[in-house]
Amino acid sequence: MTILATIRPHSWDFPLFLHVLGAMILVGGLLTGASSLALARGDVRYLRLGYFSLLAVALPGWILMRIGAEWIASKEGWTAKGAPTPTWLGIGFVLADAGGLILLVSLVAGGIGVRRLRAHKGTGLLKATLVLSIALLAAYIVAVWAMAGKPN
Amino acid sequence: MSFDDWALAVHVLSAFAYVGGIVLFWVLVVAVRRVDTPEGTLRMAPIVKVGNAAVGVGATGTIVVGIYLAFALDSYAIWNGWIIAALVLWAISAEFGRRTGAAYMQGMDKATELDAAGEGGANAELLALNRTSAGLVLHALTSLTVLLILIDMIFKPGA
């Protein structure tokens, strides 16, 4: 791990930087969205703030993270035909892609929830968005652990 | 995973907490610019606590575990230029962060004062405090410094 970090070619640095920066923005957006939704206590402003944190911060972060992931994986040769998939990379790809899908589902549910808020029809869908964003946050913490610690 | 692998994972997770907290504060910095009532300002306090916890745990974890790793790993030394740069940038970011918090607490304190006095309506002075230019610039500087740390950690200039 240490040796790898030391001898990593500098041509890998920029894609890795984009990947990590995107992941950090994603985690920040999820933290903000989950906190605002959880602590809103029915206040429409903070329910909307939570939803738009997911939409305007977490989603762009996910896109940047995923583009960076593909780029750095390609640079490191993990995407080549017949290349092995180490455990840490497998965990990362599964959580990134499944997490992206869950993020989209939570955004659709939250978007409908925000529209229903305007019509005073309750906050059920935004509660679902909250649960999904907390689950995503937990999943991405596992992904960061796997990427950084590289088990197996 | 060896102990050092775990330490590296904790170091990186701490960095995510640090940046996650800064991102959270960016959302609040933007959101509070339209808040002119004591109630609206004070409603942000619980979310601010989450951000403070993330920044506190993240900043502490990165520096403590980072220094441990600099001594524990044979390929790095605490006097490497990029590690010294990271330590200096970390100290600068911590000070910018502290000043940012102080700037935005003026609005929170004013809201508490107005709330205690029973003045719950819109207040121009509170809005001005919530729109603090100094706080905005300081938060931008904090973010820029942390971005430089991330660049330094990944590109490791001179390594």
- Rg of chain B, Cα atoms, Å: 19 Å
- Overall, the morphology of chain A is elongated
The separation of the N and C termini of chain A measures 11 Å
Kindly estimate the percentage of residues of chain B that lie in beta strands according to DSSP. under 5%
Total beta strand runs of chain A: 0
Strand fraction of chain A:
under 5%
Could you name the ranges of chain A where pLDDT drops below 50 across 5 or more consecutive residues? none
Taken from the alpha-carbon principal axes, the silhouette of chain B is: elongated
Q: How many domains of chain B, as an integer? A: 1
> Distance N terminus to C terminus of chain B?
25 Å
| Strand runs of chain B, count | 0
- Number of discrete helical segments of chain B: 6
Q: Helical content of chain B, roughly?
A: over 70%
Number of domains of chain A: 1
Overall average residue pLDDT of chain B: 94
What can you tell me about this protein's structure?
Chain A is an all-alpha fold and 152 residues long. Chain A has one domain. Chain A is 81% helix and 0% strand. In chain A, helix 2 packs antiparallel against helix 5. With 159 residues, chain B is an all-alpha fold. Chain B is elongated. At the A-B interface, helix 1, helix 2, helix 3 and helix 5 of A face helix 1, helix 3 and helix 6 of B.
Tag the structure with descriptive keywords.
heterodimer, A: 152 residues, mainly alpha, 5 helices, 81% helix, elongated, B: 159 residues, 0% strand
Can I get a quick summary?
With 152 residues, chain A is an all-alpha fold. Helices cover 81% and strands 0% of the residues of chain A.
SSE blueprint:
The complex is a heterodimer of chains A (152) and B (159).
Chain A: H1 2-7, H2 13-39, H3 44-75, H4 87-118, H5 124-149
Helix pairs in contact in A: 2-3, 2-5, 3-4, 4-5
Chain B: H1 3-32, H2 38-42, H3 45-72, H4 81-116, H5 124-130, H6 133-155
Helix pairs in contact in B: 1-3, 1-6, 3-4, 4-5, 4-6
